[in-house]
């Protein structure tokens, strides 16, 4: 058992080093000690239908999997307001004859986090854009790119709810 005290000391040193570098175990602390958040479905100013409900599902999934905050339908210590302002596809490369080899989808939202009691902004409006490329030749599509871009956008929204 001579290795036990040494092992314990090394583990303690490793834990202290990790903590001093900004790493922590478990979810990050919510802004201002909040415990609940209300996230109404974002307004959709794009011509793509249903994206706002897909994003709401993604935000709920990310919130449930990695946040200390509990989503509520009414009230809430924090309220997230958002608008989907652009969804754009861009051709990255093509073959002869204009066959698309690779494209990218850009999804942009404007997001504000407000104090649920006062209505004052806790996080002022931020414009967040996520990009996902896709290659039709290997079975990827605009739909798969949209799912992935919305997942990352949902992660960005949840990041705004966590203390820096």
- H/E topology pattern: HEEHEEEEH
Mean pLDDT: 83
- Strand proportion, as a percent range, falls in 25-35%
Structure summary, number of beta strands: 6
Q: Low-confidence segments, ≥5 residues, pLDDT <50?
A: none
Distance between the termini: 42 Å
Helix content: 25-40%
**What structural category do the secondary elements indicate?**
alpha/beta
Number of helical elements = 3
CATH class descriptor name: Alpha Beta
Question: Could you name the CATH topology?
Answer: Double Stranded RNA Binding Domain
Largest sheet: 6 strands, mixed
Determine the oligomeric state from the structure.
single chain
Principal-axes geometry comes out as flat
Q: Work out the radius of gyration.
A: 21 Å
For the record, the CATH architecture stands as 2-Layer Sandwich
Provide a compact summary of the structure.
The chain is an alpha/beta fold. The chain is 32% helix and 33% strand.
Task: Report on the architecture of this protein.
By secondary structure, the chain is of the alpha/beta class. The protein has a single domain (27-160), classed as Double Stranded RNA Binding Domain, CATH 3.30.160.150. It has helices at residues 3-20, 51-66, 142-160; strands at residues 36-38, 43-44, 70-71, 78-94, 100-115, 121-134. Strands 1, 2, 3, 4, 5 and 6 form a 6-stranded mixed beta sheet that branches. Strand 4 and strand 5 form a beta hairpin. The mean pLDDT is 83.
């Amino acid at each position: 058992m001579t290795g036990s005290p040494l092992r314990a000391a090394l583990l303690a040193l490793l834990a202290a080093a990790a903590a001093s570098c900004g790493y922590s175990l478990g979810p990050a602390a919510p802004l201002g000690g909040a415990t609940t958040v209300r996230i109404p479905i974002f307004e959709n100013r794009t011509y793509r239908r249903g994206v706002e409900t897909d994003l709401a599902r993604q935000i709920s999934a990310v919130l449930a999997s990695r946040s200390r905050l509990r989503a509520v339908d009414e009230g809430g210590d924090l309220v997230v307001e958002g608008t989907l302002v652009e969804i754009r596809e861009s051709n990255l490369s093509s073959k002869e004859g204009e066959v698309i080899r690779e494209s990218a989808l850009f999804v942009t939202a404007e997001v504000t986090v407000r104090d649920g009691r006062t209505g004052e902004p806790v996080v002022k409006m931020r414009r967040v854009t996520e990009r996902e490329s896709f290659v039709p030749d290997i079975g990827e599509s605009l739909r798969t790119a949209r799912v992935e871009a919305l997942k990352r956008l949902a992660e960005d929204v949840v990041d705004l709810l966590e203390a820096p």
